[in-house]
TrEMBL record:
<protein>
    <recommendedName>
        <fullName>Homogentisate 1,2-dioxygenase</fullName>
        <ecNumber>1.13.11.5</ecNumber>
    </recommendedName>
</protein>
<dbReference type="InterPro" id="IPR046451">
    <property type="entry name" value="HgmA_C"/>
</dbReference>
<keyword id="KW-0408">Iron</keyword>
<feature type="domain" description="Homogentisate 1,2-dioxygenase C-terminal">
    <location>
        <begin position="283"/>
        <end position="435"/>
    </location>
</feature>
<comment type="similarity">
    <text>Belongs to the homogentisate dioxygenase family.</text>
</comment>
<feature type="domain" description="Homogentisate 1,2-dioxygenase N-terminal">
    <location>
        <begin position="13"/>
        <end position="282"/>
    </location>
</feature>
<dbReference type="InterPro" id="IPR022950">
    <property type="entry name" value="Homogentis_dOase_bac"/>
</dbReference>
<dbReference type="Pfam" id="PF20510">
    <property type="entry name" value="HgmA_N"/>
</dbReference>
<keyword id="KW-0828">Tyrosine catabolism</keyword>
<dbReference type="InterPro" id="IPR005708">
    <property type="entry name" value="Homogentis_dOase"/>
</dbReference>
<keyword id="KW-0585">Phenylalanine catabolism</keyword>
<dbReference type="InterPro" id="IPR046452">
    <property type="entry name" value="HgmA_N"/>
</dbReference>
<dbReference type="InterPro" id="IPR014710">
    <property type="entry name" value="RmlC-like_jellyroll"/>
</dbReference>
<keyword id="KW-0479">Metal-binding</keyword>
<dbReference type="InterPro" id="IPR011051">
    <property type="entry name" value="RmlC_Cupin_sf"/>
</dbReference>
<comment type="function">
    <text>Involved in the catabolism of homogentisate (2,5-dihydroxyphenylacetate or 2,5-OH-PhAc), a central intermediate in the degradation of phenylalanine and tyrosine. Catalyzes the oxidative ring cleavage of the aromatic ring of homogentisate to yield maleylacetoacetate.</text>
</comment>
<feature type="active site" description="Proton acceptor">
    <location>
        <position position="295"/>
    </location>
</feature>
Length: 437
């Protein structure tokens, strides 16, 4: 967490737009024009295509980037297995899926010297990493920079939601800064290392094994609304020309593998394409809702969706509960009681969430699995049922949800954690009988 990192983060420039065919060069003339793989790439660079989708997928889903780098990625020694630490992957077979509503306090602070990778801790997930279907929920807590080591995830893309402390993400395609209130995405296979912008860092990660996240269709909403494509920021090319041993750690089919290169593989001088990391400021989300009565289903708050083979059924949705006005007449305004075929993991970045008066804290999280009954707690229900329905601004918190089509199985470490809140069911105790025939 150096002053230099902070200055670098402040000065970053970005390319804007979601899913664009971006291009960038850190050295003028490094990017070939008119072809991808000339007989000799400019400036003595090696050309390499990084494919995030099958070659033949439709254009709307196709993701690939061409990288022009100092050394080809192929030049590396063998990878060998290393300990997975607290990282787990689907299929999650070490414990059974639990229909109970679960809630956790934040992770305990990590030991000194814990970097982003060492600080990953898996809460649970679903699907199968090797089948490229499903997702995992990880938390991270770090207090040290990743120095002379980089990480890549062959199993999926990483949607990172900082809750405490900023991150400077050094990726193959350039640098991104992600602070609380932002979300960052590292595509499948893109190597990166994490430098901290503050003394420590904590947050959430959705590892998406399935189709890459995309913007949801807007239907009758029209051409604008929710997350705007122009607010997604991709890095400009930046490279490291470092010739000293660098450990490259790859997550592959659930396990960590390590190889020590004799140079930094973050050596891409120019690139173009659509398989790119990006950062998005969730405070820019255009929140839509009812201006008459009731409120829409929370799908109206979807930032990004990973589609499945069934139209409208997401492998995982990333949903944000951002500041907004509530104006519904004759309406119970907090989230309603419900039981959902989808499974919901919620986290809190700051403040409070309007369905839970207390106990749901920044850095913590709740899991409401398939068909589990949930909704406002007793105190919230009583307050909202009696509230005067004048226009009300909800502006004291920023919460999010990973909503997924399959039940989430908690890992053994999450199911048995000291920071699991025993007695979470109690928040729905005290809901009085009001029925009068
Ligand atoms: Fe829910």
């Amino acid at each position: 967490m150096s002053e230099q990192a902070r200055k670098t983060a402040e000065a970053l420039e970005y390319l804007t737009g979601f899913g664009n065919e971006h291009s960038s060069e850190a050295v003028p003339g490094a990017l070939p024009i008119g072809r991808n793989s000339p007989q000799r790439a400019p400036l003595g660079l090696y050309a390499e295509q990084l494919s995030g989708s099958a070659f033949t997928e439709p254009r709307t889903h196709n993701r690939r980037s061409w990288l022009y780098r100092i050394r080809p990625s192929a030049a590396h020694p063998p990878f060998t297995r290393i300990d997975n630490g607290a990282l787990r992957s689907a299929p999650f077979t070490e414990s059974v899926a639990d229909p109970n509503r679960l809630r956790w306090n934040p992770l305990p602070d990590p030991a000194p010297g814990t970097d982003f990778l060492a600080g990953l801790w898996t809460l649970g997930g679903n699907g199968d990493a090797a089948q490229r279907a499903g997702m995992a929920i990880h938390l991270y807590a770090a207090n040290a920079d990743m120095t002379d080591r980089v990480f890549s995830d062959s199993d999926g893309e990483l949607l990172i939601v900082p809750e405490r402390g900023g991150l400077l993400l050094h990726t193959e395609l350039g640098l991104l800064a992600a602070r609380p209130g932002d979300m960052a995405l590292i595509p499948r296979g893109v190597r990166f290392r994490v430098e901290l912008l503050d003394a420590d860092a904590r947050g959430y990660i959705c590892e998406n094994y399935g189709q890459p996240f995309e913007l949801p269709n807007l239907g009758p909403i029209g051409a604008n609304g929710l997350a705007a494509a122009r607010d997604f920021q991709a890095p400009v090319a930046a490279y490291e020309d470092i010739e000293r041993p660098t450990e490259v750690i790859n997550k592959f089919c659930g396990n960590l593998w390590s190889a020590t290169y004799d140079h930094s593989p973050l050596d891409v001088v120019a690139w173009h394409g659509s398989h790119v990391p990006y950062v998005y400021d969730m405070r820019r989300f255009n929140v839509l809702g009812s201006i008459s009565y009731d409120h829409p289903d929370p799908s109206i708050f979807t930032v990004l969706t990973s589609p499945s083979d069934t139209p409208g059924l997401a492998g995982v949705d990333f949903v944000v509960f951002a500041p907004r006005w509530l104006v519904g007449e004759d309406t119970f305004r907090p989230p309603y009681f419900h039981r959902n075929v989808m499974s919901e993991y919620m986290g809190l970045i700051e403040g409070a969430y309007d369905a839970k008066a207390e106990g749901f804290v920044p850095g913590g999280g709740s899991l409401h699995n398939m068909m589990s009954a949930h909704g406002p707690d007793h105190e919230t229900f009583e307050r909202a049922s009696a509230a005067e329905l004048k226009p009300q601004k909800i502006d004291d918190g920023l919460a999010f949800m990973f909503e997924t089509r399959w039940p989430i199985t908690a890992t053994a470490q999450a199911a048995g954690a000291d920071h699991l809140q025993r007695g979470y069911d109690d928040v729905w105790q005290g809901l009085q009988r009001h029925f009068r025939a």
